[in-house]
Amino acid sequence: MVHLNPNTTPAADVPVIEHAKVIIVGAGPVGLFLALKLAKASIQVMVLEAENAVLQSPRATTYMPIVLNELEKVGLYEDVERAGFKNKEGVTYRTSNAKGGNVLARLEMSQIPKGAVKYDFAGIHLGQHSLAEILLTHCQREKNFSIKWGHRFVGVKQGGPQDPVTVNCLAIGEKFFTCDYLVGADGAGSSVRRSQCIAFEGFTWQDFRFVASNVKYPFEEYGFTTANMIVDEEDWAVIARTGPGDAPWRVAFGVRMTVPESEILTQIPEKYERLFPGPRPLKYELVSANPYWAHQRVAATLRVGKVILCGDAGHSNNPIGGLGLTTGLMDAAALGNCLIRIYTHGEEADGLLDRYSRVRRNAWMEFTNPGSIDFKLRIHSTHPEVEASRKEFFDSLNSDPDISMKVATMMNNVVEDEFALPEDSFKDIPATA
Ligand SMILES: Cc1cc2nc3c(=O)[nH]c(=O)nc-3n(C[C@H](O)[C@H](O)[C@H](O)COP(=O)(O)OP(=O)(O)OC[C@H]3O[C@@H](n4cnc5c(N)ncnc54)[C@H](O)[C@@H]3O)c2cc1C
User: Fold this and answer.
1) Hey, which of 57, 129, 325 would you mutate to test ligand 1's pocket, going by the most ligand atoms within 8 Å of its Cβ?
2) Does residue 411's CB lie within 6 angstroms of at least one atom of ligand 1?
3) Is the CB of residue 24 below 6 angstroms from any atom belonging to ligand 1?
4) Which is the closest atom of ligand 1 to the Cα of 252?
5) 364: Cβ below 6 Å to ligand 1?
6) Domains, the chain, ordered by start
7) Does any ligand 1 atom lie closer than 6 A to the CB of residue 49?
8) What is the number of the ligand 1 atom nearest to the C-alpha of 188?
9) How many whole angstroms from 348 Cα to the centroid of ligand 1?
10) 187 alpha carbon to ligand 1 midpoint, in Å?
């Protein structure tokens, strides 16, 4: 038995093979961002990932100023800016091509005076798998970081307050690890959350399934801006760049629940026919497509003892408006700061981690959940109240000269971080390996 930390003993008589201060389950963008923050602060961190590489499925594409500010703090901003595409235009709301392709309203970043906000653009567009690859490259430069690919978390045992947490994985055979803290960043179907019997409260949308497709098509030749929302009862969609140059565009749309699972992806040609501008027959290159269930769900708590949840493991919302990963990365920033304060500044762990759970859960409940529901309904609902509020929103975009500034200020709202680190936290951190 190899047990690397002589100060701790395994919670049970199991063949523990390694110890890390923090073990994170999941090498998605949230898990890797947290790992990078910790490793940079000289906290030994190990990531356990079920797959053998970063997941490539088409999901998040947009990072808003609030997130860019956090990426900047750990030295990631330049790489993300280089790899991604800056949305300097804003958001365009249109009708579907089948209904004329008319512009209904625009949120225009160009109306914002230079220097008025820290980031004078709406966000950076980049596939989340590319963000995760950038994060991984940065993590691998840190001597306190390690990752185990092909290790599927299956169980955890917490002992008393002084005992380490024992983690059980399936790799080639069964493996056990110990840690001080276990973080579940293993996505919406989180096994870590389930291992603690934490309820995932809320609902799953029953009107539409979501389909996210990546496709090469020259939308810009037909006047499409970096981010476009197609407003339609049936053919609603989000059409947005996923990066610079010839990176594919993201076309995300809904398919009614009456369509059987096996036929969801066969709807793509007909959908594209109704959505895409340009001459017929349409010529495009479909790169990838995936159907998703969309939820509005939050874990009853983000913490049970030394097991903590972060990102989609703690909350999941429909993707319209791009708030899911935004919230997850902000969780990782907050949890990273809490753990750094515990290890580096000797702060009391229980109170801080309870506050993390409460504050980040509330952030999702009070902002992400209602915001993402509003974004979704705004592009397809025919409910009279939604129609009235959509009209009011579009009217103000079209007539209020200050609206872009107001929205940009909100998006740039680099809020006072209640878990912020003391100024000197990253001082005297040993050079990276
Ligand atoms: C179509 C679509 C578009 C979206 N667009 C946006 C957007 O523009 N902006 C935005 O902010 N959000 C968006 N989202 C939401 C975003 O994709 C999620 O919020 C994000 O993936 C959450 O990241 P995560 O790291 O928490 O989880 P994930 O990305 O799901 O990563 C979890 C990781 O854990 C691993 N894992 C799972 N189980 C285990 C286990 N038992 N053991 C070990 N490893 C395990 C998985 O393999 C995976 O690598 C979108 C979502 C969808 C579906």
Assistant:
1) 325
2) no
3) no
4) 1
5) no
6) 16-60+127-202+296-378 (3.50.50.60)
7) yes
8) 30
9) 31
10) 5
**Which protein residue has the closest C-alpha to ligand 1 atom 33?**
26
From first to last of its 433 residues, what are the pLDDT tens digits of the chain? Answer: 334 444 445 555 678 789 999 999 999 999 999 999 999 999 999 999 999 999 999 999 999 999 999 999 999 999 999 999 999 999 999 999 999 999 999 988 877 777 778 888 889 999 999 999 999 999 999 999 999 999 999 999 998 888 999 999 999 999 999 999 999 999 999 999 999 999 999 999 999 999 999 999 999 999 999 999 999 999 999 999 999 999 999 999 999 999 999 999 999 999 999 999 999 999 999 999 999 999 999 999 999 999 999 999 999 999 999 999 999 999 999 999 999 999 999 999 999 999 999 999 999 999 999 999 999 999 999 999 999 999 999 999 999 878 877 777 776 654 557 778 765 443 333 333 2
Is residue 336 lining ligand 1, measured as CB closer than 6 Å? no
Per-residue HEC secondary structure of the chain comes to CCCCCCCCCCCCCCCEEEEEEEEEECCCHHHHHHHHHHHHCCCCEEEECCCCCCCCCCCCCEECHHHHHHHHHCCCHHHHHHHCEEECCEEEEECCHHHCCCEEEEEEHHHCCCCCCCCCCCEEECCHHHHHHHHHHHHCCCCCEEEECCCEEEEEEECCCCCCEEEEEEECEEEEEEEEEEEECCCCCCHHHHHCCCCEEEEECCCEEEEEEEEECCHHHHCCCCEEEECCCCCCEEEEECCCCCCCEEEEEEEECCCCHHHCHHHHHHHHHHHCCCCCCCCCEEEEEEEECCEEEEECCCEECCEEECHHHCEECCCCCCCHHHHHHHHHHHHHHHHHHHHHHCCCHHHHHHHHHHHHHHHHHHHHHHHHHHHHHHHHCCCHHHHHHHHHHHHHHHHCCCHHHHHHHHHCCCCCCCCCCCCCCCCCCCCCC
- 55 Cα to the center of ligand 1, angstroms: 9
Top mutation candidate among 37, 56, 59 for ligand 1, by most atoms within 8 Å of CB: 59
